[in-house]
Write a structure and sequence with these properties.
Number of domains: 2
Oligomer: single chain
Strand content: 35-45%
Order of helices and strands: HHEEEEEEEEEEEHEEEEEEEEEE
Length: 290
């Protein structure tokens, strides 16, 4: 269906004005034979502005229907090409929320936009419809909030105290963090698991080189006390044992994980510290009891 214009009276009221956002000049009504120059100025400026900005625009096609212009946007490194739609019937007496999912699927509902922390999407517009109709002013264009970038999710990074906008998964993998989990003592042995994650909290399926050591306190220097039992890496690859049973250079497995098994027959407490990419992480107490 063809896109509708505002009423003639509304258009006539624009005579001689300049749009503050685009700089488009509205020809003066009644300029006589000189009207053509003003008209060409208007078209020239308009074409320069809308060639890109018109993409994915929501517009009115009927009393209770809208269309969406074709356009492109990036989903991370993937270019999505939305073909547009000529007519989408809206819900009367409701606010209609119009958005594209990350795969380019158009969605319209009356419940609201998705939570960006859960669903990646591109918000296009919302339209208030009442009594079987809506005006052009009832279309709230939301595209500029994204600049064609998908929204969400929002998550915490590093020490879980700083919120950051959604990072694409490829970028998130480049900002690792580490969790150190201490298991329960069993047969004078405790397993300590090192897990590398991305900044979104997902396990990072890459191999990492870590500098690992036992200390008497979190982030402390290498301990002077050597475990009495067997100390070995049951997951991951030991590249070098720098100090026997105390300090190592280790490569995680393909899931970003390494597990250290510590044996001790007496009473003792240590902490496992991990350095990856220049950042140091420490686990909770590794406590052996007789």
């Amino acid at each position: 269906m063809a896109e509708l214009f505002p009423a003639d009276a509304d258009l006539e009221s624009l005579s001689g004005l300049i749009d503050p956002t685009t700089g488009v000049y509205y020809p003066v009504k009644g300029e006589g034979l000189d009207w053509y120059v003003s008209f060409v100025k208007c078209i020239y400026r308009l074409v320069s502005n809308v060639s890109v900005a018109g993409g994915l625009r929501v517009y009115k096609v009927a009393s209770i229907a809208c269309g969406v212009k074709p356009g492109k946007f990036f989903d991370g490194t993937t270019l999505r090409d939305y073909a547009g739609t000529a007519e989408e019937v809206l819900t009367d007496n409701s606010t209609n929320y119009i958005y594209l999912l990350a795969d380019g699927t158009l969605t319209i509902n009356t419940t609201g936009f998705p939570n960006p922390a859960q669903t990646r999407h591109l918000r296009l517009a919302q339209i208030d419809v009442s009594d079987g109709s809506f005006s052009h002013d009832d279309i709230s264009d939301l595209r500029t909030a994204h600049l064609w970038q998908l929204g969400g999710p929002v998550t915490a990074i590093a020490d879980d105290t700083v919120d950051t906008a959604q990072l694409h998964d490829n970028v998130a993998d480049l900002v690792p963090k580490v969790t150190v989990s201490v298991g329960q003592e069993s047969g004078n042995t405790i397993a300590v698991t090192i897990q590398v994650q991305d900044c979104q909290g997902n396990n990072n399926a890459n191999r990492f080189l870590g500098h690992v050591w036992l200390s008497n306190s979190q982030y402390g220097s290498e301990t002077s006390t050597t475990p009495s039992g067997t100390v070995s890496w049951t997951s991951g690859t030991q590249l070098a044992e720098i100090t026997a049973k105390k300090r190592w250079s280790v490569i995680t497995n393909s899931s970003g994980q390494a597990v250290l098994s510590i044996g001790e027959s007496g009473s003792a407490t240590w902490y496992l510290n991990v350095e990856i990419d220049g950042r140091v992480y420490a686990g909770s107490a590794i406590t052996f009891t007789v």
